[in-house]
Design brief:
The chain is mainly alpha-helical. 37% of the residues are buried.
Length: 302
Amino acid sequence: MAAAHDLEMESVNLNMERENKEELEEEKTWVDGGGKDPSKNRKVHRIVSKWMLPEPVRRTYLERANCFPPPLFIISISLAELAVFIYYAVWKPQKQWITLDIGILESPLIYRPEKREEAWRFISYMLVHAGVQHIVGNLLMQLVLGIPLEMVHKGLRVGLVYLAGVIAGSLASSIFDPLRSLVGASGGVYALMGGYFMNVLVNFREMIPVFGIFRLLVIVLIVVSDMGFALYRRFFVPENGSPVSFAAHIAGGFAGMSIGYTVFSCFDKALLKDPRFWIAIAAYLACVLFAVFFNIFLSPAN
């Protein structure tokens, strides 16, 4: 027993020495790279790497990590959504800020089933939100998760996943909830969460198990509470209330768990050379084509 204990302590000491050595090497890399504040930058990127990446690729990220370009996609889309919300809350006739009604229902950005031929509405609906709680929840989730994701994977990949969720959300809503209008960026937000969730689940052992459990619990809590709010708004708010569809949440999550997982798991690989990416894209496009066919020929809203 004593020998086993000694071996275990020796293993722990070796792991600690290896981690300390890696930290010193990373700090040297930052200093040699001419960083203005290497210790502070290194700490930020180290935290991001532990939350966003499995252990085997963290070193690669830390060696080339920088803040250029900054997370422009998530910040830009968040500012655009906030600007549209303020516009409809302040400059359009509203009874209150908590739940917007008249202004957004007449907006050319909102998805409305009777105006499906205006194809931009399948994307632009993400800019419009139904009230303070709706936009605060979406902005908080996409900033907290989206900024570190974009620091690691950059804006093009994060934007691809986000927009895939947005389009999947509106198309799914047009099929499963065909007579309801739609607003909000929940499809894109759920796509980010879906991709991140699958990466944590698949790489659980390499993403620090204690933190992994915590992250999974946080995601589940957010999804349950937000889905509960969406279901409440869908089935218990009067017909003249603000339109919120739960179908967009589910479809965005599935888009994230397929396309998002593939994109986020290819951190140190060429995305276009990964067959999983093309399989996910092919499945996604098949669903899109079916949704388009349904909207043209089979929708009850016709």
